[in-house]
Amino acid sequence: MWKKGSTLKKRLNTLLLVCLIPLAALLLYMLIMVDRFSGRYDVIVEKITKANAYNIEFKEDMDYLMYIIVVNAERAGELVDTEEPHLLIEDARRVFRSLYETADEEYAKNRLNGILKSLNTLEDRVEEIEADALVSGSYDRNMERLDLNIRILTELIQEQIQKYIYYETTNLESLREGIRTDVDRAIRTVGIGYVLILAGALLISRRIMTNITEPIRKLCEMAGQAGQGDFAVRAQEGSDDELDVLNTSFNHMVEEVGKLVEDIRIEQLNLRATELKLLQAQINPHFLYNTLDTIIWLAEAGDSKQVVTLVSSLSDFFRTTLSKGRDYITVREEEAHVRSYLKIQQFRYRDILEYEIRIPEELYQYRILKLTLQPLVENALYHGIKNKRGMGRIRVTGEHKEDRLVFCVWDNGKGMDEAELARARKLIKGGQSGEDGPSGFGLFNVAQRIYLNYGAEYGLFVNSEEGEWTEFSVEIPVVKN
To answer: CA–CA distance from 281 to each of 47, 257, 287, 375 (Å)?
Structure first.
């Protein structure tokens, strides 16, 4: 389904389009329906409104005007506008003619045609009365015309208008029933469309998740084999997406780890061998395996933001670990390395781990031996926090004291009794403590590297209170980068 070189962003954009385009089509369909209903409704209401304006007022105004003209023929021009009846008739004729031209039913045309003919007849009768209004002896005749012609015609016109309004009102009710039917049909259409969109989105999202998680699963298998000592394993490359960057980095890392392991075996116990062994301990394939396993879990949960955050932290962690082969890095880089490690571990131990890093920015400019603080943080996590109940806290601090920098890694773990504290101090000095595992080896290496690079007046120190806390402090000289 996906072309080679299709990035995760393109895949997710495809999923977005699969959802948005059908939804936009459904929305457009609903808008067209609403517009059509609204248009039809507005036309009928406009017709009723126009006709209704002449339903009552036209008869009252016409009857009144013609009564004034007949009764006060000599003063009619002073009392009313004698042209007003003609204007009323012409205005009504214009309105009902426009309704006639837009009518689409024969019944409506017949009603409107009858109204127009009645208006023409009414105009003729008005002209007859106006012509005889000042003729001597025509008063009684004009009053009779007013009753028999004008008032009867206006009443007839009013009845015709009411019948037309009733007809259009009936059409409005029919329109309402039609709208109800169309709305029901639209609801069914939208419901079916939504189900289809949901099904399609689920299928495509499942395919996308599989394309994301499957390479990560394979990479985890490679990491597991590398964790067992097989550094010849290689992840598949060439997909040209974001995961290929991770595969390439993994292959590069495994290759480098293999070289480092071989160098350690050859160079024995010199300073470079000690540093490479520590580097091997830090680039722990099991640590990477667990981190990638967490990434899979987050990806399957669809939390792409957390996946990006975790992968970025993992990349930053190994970037600082390798550091292009440099022995010394800035305090800023060392702090970033510790922060990346803790951020990754907090994804796994979020229920028991809180951390705080308080290193002043003015210390960032100074140099520090690479991988000095991270082994201490790892020791605090695995030998302090994990062995206590409840929430654990790790605090990393730094300060400038006279001619040296002092860094402290404190945890509120299980602490150490006097015997354990004595063994830890002996281990740091290079004696046999009986403690196995990478953590003990890491503490010895930190202390040994500080001694070999800075001298005997600097080093690693430990204090603890059983059941309360443990604190490792590092003292090194102030050296600007």
So the answer is: 87, 10, 10, 9
Task: Give 406's pLDDT tier (boundaries 50, 70, 90).
Answer: very high
Q: Are 341 and 379 in contact (CB under 8 A)?
A: no
Angle between helices 57-71 and 106-132 (to 10 degrees): 10
Distance between CA atoms of residues 58 and 115, nearest Å: 12
Q: Rounded distance, CA 437 to CA 284, Å?
A: 13
* Alpha-helical regions (H) of 53-83: 57-71, 76-79
Please compute Rg for the chain using Cα positions: 47
* Structure tokens, 389: 């109940």
3-state secondary structure of 437: coil
Q: Are 369 and 452 in contact (CB under 8 A)?
A: no
Q: Is 455 helix (H, G, I), strand (E, B) or coil?
A: coil
Q: Return the DSSP state at 150.
A: I
DSSP state string for 36-50: HHHHHHHHHHHHHHH
End-to-end CA, the chain: 52
For residue 64, the model assigns a pLDDT of 78
Q: Which pTM was predicted?
A: 0.43
Question: What confidence tens digit (pLDDT) does each residue in 192-235 have?
Answer: 877 887 787 788 777 777 777 777 788 788 888 877 877 777 77
Residue range 116-158, pLDDT digits in tens: 888 888 888 888 777 776 554 566 776 777 777 788 888 888 8
Categorize the per-residue pLDDT at 363 as very low, low, confident or very high, splitting at 50, 70 and 90.
very high
Residue 397, pLDDT > 90, answer yes
For 372-387, give the secondary structure using H, E and C.
CCHHHHHHHHHHHHCC
Q: Is pLDDT above 80 for 459? A: yes
Return the DSSP state at 2: P
Contacts 24+ apart (CB under 8 A), 190-195: 190/26, 190/29, 190/30, 193/22, 193/25, 193/26, 194/26
Tell me if residue 215 falls in helix, strand or coil: helix
DSSP state of 151: I
